[in-house]
Design a protein that fits this description.
Low-confidence stretches: none
Number of strands: 4
Shape: globular
Structural class: alpha+beta
Order of helices and strands: HHEEEHEHH
Distance between the termini: 9 Å
Strand order of the largest sheet: 1-2-3-4
Number of helices: 5
CATH topology of the domain at 36-118: Endonuclease, Chain A
Length: 126
């Protein structure tokens, strides 16, 4: 499968680096579960600039974005919808989990991601 090159605003590079240094507890927990190709051998990156946004986690091979929605997302649901629509225009699939879900049920979140990847592989003959 050929990977698509996704452009981004170069001004976001510094902010992404800062976000990687200051991850939330939920981001750290999920990162520990998916880093080092532990999710079926797929490599994820964290705090990745894509277009005019920074996504929490991104796997280029799967064209998959994983977002963790904290309390701040409660106040900007309209912006999140527009953001997701723009990212989907690039062919990206977005999976969202709440911060509470990741913290309270990391095992369940990991299983849901594993199932998503299995379904993706089955539907794309990988």
């Amino acid at each position: 499968m050929k990977r698509k090159i996704l452009r981004y605003d170069s001004k976001l590079k510094t902010l992404a680096k800062e976000l990687r240094k200051n991850m939330t507890y939920a981001e750290i927990a999920l990162w520990s579960a998916i880093r080092n190709k532990t999710l079926k051998g797929y490599k994820f990156r964290r705090q990745v600039p894509i277009s005019n946004y920074i996504v929490d986690f991104y796997c280029p091979e799967l064209m998959l974005v994983i977002e963790i929605d904290g309390r701040s997302h409660d106040l900007k649901q309209d912006k999140d919808v527009l953001r997701q629509q723009e990212l989907e225009k690039f062919g990206l699939k977005i999976i969202r989990f709440s911060e509470a879900e990741v913290i309270q049920n990391l095992n369940g979140v990991s299983k849901a991601l594993f199932k998503w990847v299995e379904d993706f592989e089955k539907n794309n003959d990988i």
